[in-house]
Amino acid sequence: MIYLDNNATTAIDPEVARLVAEELLVGPSNPSSQHAIGRQANERLDDAIQRIGRALGCDLLQPGGERFVLTSGGTESNNLALMGLSSAEAPLIVSAVEHPSVLSVAEYAKQCGRTVEFLSVDSRGIVRLDELAERVDALKSTEAAPVVAVMSANNETGVIQPIPEVSAICRQAGAMLHVDATQTVGKLDISMDWYGADSISFAAHKFHGPPGVGGLLLGAGVSLRPLLHGGEQQLLSRPGTEPVALAVGMAKALEIAIDGLDQTQEYIAGLRDGLENGLLGQCPELVVHGRGAERLPGTSCISFPGADRQNMLMALDMASIACSSGSACSSGSSPPSHVLTAMGCEKSVIEAAIRFGFSRFSTIEDVQPAVERICRVYSRLRF
Questions:
Q1: Which pLDDT band, with edges at 50, 70 and 90, does 215 fall under?
Q2: Is the pLDDT of residue 142 over 60?
Q3: Tens digits of per-residue pLDDT, 244-260?
């Protein structure tokens, strides 16, 4: 099987897996316990969190500085940020191409009577900054500061958003900014300062870390209303016993991802370009989405005109190609891509879109066989 679904999840790094296993075998690890074993677990947890902060350009030891909240992953982090950054009445402005864990929160908030506005994108999938400026300016006089949510890079197309410009607009209008950085942390050399956000979410399984753990990084002075209740862990922001082994694994995975990132980016982008060029060489009618914009190095969203994406996915699976039709959080029913819809793509193009994703564990030897199998399946299924 050639695995080309790394936007959904990545294989855990063997070194990280061994470290997690070693931590689990240490014995009981409840960092909230006050006995010696608990204090030792807390020390290991604190060390892991400090290392995560350093990898993201933060000094989490600085009083009044940035703060880190350990979560179960990107979905929880996004929910926690959108529901907890401001009051329950604060207006929400979210881009139309956000991950389902953001859009679903926005829809729920709207049903509860909260003011929610959706920010459009251009044909490349980049948010319209002029529209954002107009919307936050119109809402800045509301009782609670608006909360804006714009992802750093799209999980379907890989298109990178102009977050520094988005942040500047929000700052000027007094709006709060949440950035879903699930697809960029560990993949791009970006620090907390670059984002200029009030909160940043990410998940370890996107950069070869363990599944089931992620984080929400909070800017200096940013408070957070909890979604959960019943414990005093993490300064009441997210109660529950912290998973020390998963936190240790996430810290190690992030350090490995950051180390030699320039070389890794170049390598992965070469694999992606090799796939796209190979496919276009044999099937020039294919549509590569977002190719005119800056993209994540390993992400490729391609439409196969005349083919149905579900039939393509099943046939590619039988041909030992693992890929997807979009977000793994919504692909069970495989609805039409809301991302490509927001970009103004034609229905026939949307219905034929497949996502491929490479990682540093992908190989050059995967590319040509993948091209041949994909083209063979496409030629058989197109109508």
A1: very high
A2: yes
A3: 999 999 999 999 999 98
Q: What are phi and psi for residue 74, nearest 5 degrees?
A: -65, -40
Cα–Cα distance for residue pair 185/202, rounded to 1 Å: 7
Helix/strand/coil for 73:
coil
CA distances to 73, 167, 173, 207, 238 from 69, rounded to whole Å, are 11, 21, 26, 18, 7
Active-site option among 112, 170, 329, 375: 329
Residue corresponding to tokens 């496409």: 378
**Known active-site residue 375:** no
Average pLDDT over residues 321-332: 72
Sheet holding 214-218, edge to edge: 67-71, 214-218, 199-203, 176-180, 147-149, 92-95, 116-119
Tell me the two tokens of residue 130.
């002029």
Both tokens assigned to 96: 């139309």
State the residue for tokens 């959706």.
118
List b or e across 86-112, with b for residues whose CB sees 16 or more CB atoms inside 10 angstroms. beeebbbbbbbbbbbbbbbbbeebeee
